[in-house]
Amino acid sequence: MTRITRRGFAQLSGAGAFAAGTGGLAGILASGRAPAYGQTAAVHWLRWADFVPASDVLLKGPIVQQCQKDLGIKLTVETINANDIQARVTSAVQSGTGPDIILGLNNWPQLYARSLADVTDLAEQLGKEGGGYYDALKSVGTYDKHWIGVPWCIGGGLVAYRKSWLAKAGADKFPANWDDYRAVGKKLKAAGHPYGQTAGHTFGDAPGWWYPYMWSWGGKEVEADGKTVALNSKETVESVKFAVALWKETMDEGGLSWDDTSNNRAFLSGSISATNNGASIYLEAKKKPDSYQTDKGTPMKDDILHASIPGGAGGQFNLPGPMIDMLMGYSKNQDSAKKFMAWIRSKPVYEQWFTSQQGYQCGPTKMWEDDPVWNVDPVLAPFKKIPVTGRMLGYAGAPTQNAAEVQTKYIIVDMYAKAIQGMPAEASVKAAHDELVKIYGA
User: Which domain holds residue 122?
Assistant: First the structure.
């Protein structure tokens, strides 16, 4: 992933004032044909390459065709590896040209806030119609009292695990605390079935594991004022010391270089017994029961369950993964883009995509909690709780631009990775704390 320097970050966050307001949401939604913005009715939507491939097939085929028919808008859906999205945003902002809409992950929209169009009217109306947004989406999707993007969905990880292997190690259910997790993990690794996590520079699985892990020990980036750096604490140091032992005793140590697909492959190949991940591992095993089998020759899907990351003295958490569609301020197709964003979030259209996800993502508003998709497969049902059981980057402050920069530079992840590779825990924490001071300024 392209790193954002301090200077580059300042340039991005101040690249220009908010674009003008929506220009009348009623007009956007009421028109029977795509409005003009001085250009042809065309919209270019850049997204991540979905971990549920069927969803991308849907968007690039039937949805593109339906958009042309219903709105008269020529929709281009481009998908790329999620780790490459920030480089595309940076390039587009600097050149003033590129996709009209870009899907922002985590709290990335905060980094580009002043380069995005103000979509307040549209976002607020859609949120009201859907029963309200989750707090995590609102916190990363707004800046200076404006909506800087329209929420698309919110997901996150749970631990996928092989229930038969854990049972052999003495765990009839997934360990709920770190001591039990470590004890079971020792037995699993000795039996050739280690846990598997990444401590690498990858957008999802690394922060999705190490932030909740730190919080569970009582560690935090900053105080509630969002300014005073509080990382260098006894709780954080103890979490790092424990993590080093945990890594060596229970983990596949190759995880230092894993990206967001490595643990999926390791799990499905039978190399690891548990990993924090979205629902994609189970969905793949379910899709191809003859390809992914246990050592007994039975479908692996029947040996997979999901559980929350273990907790500690500080509590038990996950890291929700908000996804926000950012309408770029440079776009000359803003009216068409807004109409498209409203249309694709209408229940008949969005439900097609939501159903294709099978529970991998939660909807952006609370109305989707009652969707029938959650009743189809009890193995996926726990993902429904992700939006309301987590904390966001930047705790105990808000998920601000500063918190986004910390995550983008992998400072918290590297704090653990450096210690795993031999740096004393105290030194690793101090180094990370000092980096946060440079960013937060306190």
Answer: 6-155+321-387
Same domain flag for 303 and 346: no
Co-location of 366 and 299 in the same domain = no
pLDDT in tens, 244-293: 999 999 999 999 999 999 999 999 999 999 999 999 999 999 999 999 99
Alpha carbons 218 and 128: distance in angstroms, whole number: 35
Is residue 100 domain-resident? yes
pLDDT in the model for residue 11: 36
Residues 231 and 184 in one domain: yes
Read off the pLDDT of residues 316-371 as tens digits, 9 standing for 90 and up: 999 999 999 999 999 999 999 999 999 999 999 999 999 999 999 999 999 999 99
380 in Cβ contact with 389 (< 8 Å): no
Using the Cα atoms of residue 281, residue 240, residue 410 and residue 405 in order, give the sign of their dihedral. positive
Instruction: Tell me: do 68 and 116 sit in the same domain.
Output: yes
Q: What tokens does 18 get?
A: 């908010």
Domains contained in the chain, number: 2
Report how far residue 321's alpha carbon sits from residue 364's, in angstroms, rounded to the nearest whole number.
Answer: 11
Q: Rg (Cα) of the chain, in Å, rounded?
A: 22
